[in-house]
Design goal:
This protein is α+β, with helices and mostly antiparallel strands. The protein has three domains: 235 residues, 2-Layer Sandwich (Uridine Diphospho-n-acetylenolpyruvylglucosamine Reductase, domain 3), CATH 3.30.465; 121 residues, 2-Layer Sandwich (Alpha-Beta Plaits); 88 residues, Alpha-Beta Plaits. Helix content is 33%, strand content 19%. It has 14 helices and 17 strands. The strands form four sheets. Strands 14-11-13-12-16-17-15 form a seven-stranded antiparallel beta sheet, with helices on both faces. Helix 7 packs antiparallel against helix 11, helix 8 packs across helix 10 and helix 11 runs antiparallel to helix 12. The two termini are 44 Å apart.
Length: 490
Amino acid sequence: MDRVPPVQSATEASPGENGPPAGVFDARQVVTDPEVLAGYSEDASSIIGAPEGLLRPTDPQEVAAALAHAAGEGIPVTPCGLRTSTTGAGLAPRGWTLSTERMTGLIDLDPVRRTAIVGAGTVLREFKDLVEAEGLFYPPDPTSERECAVGGTVACDASGARTYRYGATHRWVRGLEVVFTDGTVRWLRRPEIEKDAAGYAALRDLVRLFCGSEGTLGVITKVEVDLLARPEAFTAGFGFFGDVQQALAFVDAARREDRLRTGVNPRCLELLDGLALQIMAAQDSGVAIPANAGAAIFFEEEHVHGGEMAVMEAWWALLSSSEGALAEDTVVASNRAEQEELRLLRHAVPATLNDEGRSHREAGGKKISTDWAVPFHYLAPLVAEFDGWIAEAGLDRVARYGHVGNGHPHYNLIVKNHEEAARAAEIVDRMCREACRVGGTVTAEHGVGKVKREYAAYRFSPLHFAAMKGIKRAFDPSGILAPGNIWHEE
């Protein structure tokens, strides 16, 4: 496999080190068939894009030629992966959509250094399966891993259930091949030195700058990541509770034991509320969901082969001592088939709610979801407060699930018409404002995109926005990339 040339400067390779400059743009590559474009006007969000053309390049040089041409002509270009975004980040409001879906495959795997290079359009789960076959492990695990592209997970700095243990995508990215609007193709690399006092600390690592950039700075075409040794084994399970507050108290206790290393050592702690459990029970999976459960916590813990019993004894002890726990109903999965069944059940919750939201579109309804997160100690009281707001608003189709181990639940509100949508939008706005007031954020894994632009002002000051816009001007002086992402167009 071809290796990336070593970078002599701290973080950035010069264009000459990365192959030939952009070639001549071929306008015949732009797809304008309305039926094809319609497939690129929707994603997992509730908004609709309006692309006027579609590009599906097969290599970085094609991307470079297209971007240089677009910059010269002032044509907006919105990069996208496999259109799983919940924020509309990959939907073009006009101009061209540039899909990375044809730039795929494992390009390099170094089992000694535990690194890999992969095409940006590669399905995340397919990449993970390839490295796991070699005894290695790539930790980021967004719920959409079977449908999303690796480059897209970098662009929105995705995370997932195991973020509790392993952190978000940016923690694992060591290098990026990026195409810029001047037609250059460059490798950006993380510095490997252990100390550095040069310049602004936030800009010493341009790789990290691109994590969460949502297509506004350049087009990511290859991703180099760090890997771990594949865990020998893990055990997964559902612990059931009478209500959500009892489940959150259990998570607090599990976090405390983990921090003190006195009991359980989870790699994920996920909430599923009563509606989520109803959806799971309807899947007819064979997993027993107790009828009197009002919430569950999904957990996983890694261990050596043969360590299942010791792990489960620790979880059983914690569950048995937790108020409201239905310990006798605990579901445990220690083999691959059972573990996959539990994960598919978890995935069925957002998938079902997405379908339900789409069924109300004609009347102005949809699914409205939150992505805010707060410092953990604020979580339980805020959930109680927010639940009160929802009840007062008369909204009765609400699911709460997600990454509560990180103080990051998802509220999914199914609204049936325009009037309900307006009430729900007001509540979500209040949630985001309150989350930021206590030191939280409006988006913890899906990015801002176009859906959360109004809330971004609660997270960022005018100074933050000025700095981000200044950086964008430096990387995209023509201002053509991903119009409308993160902030409104000017």
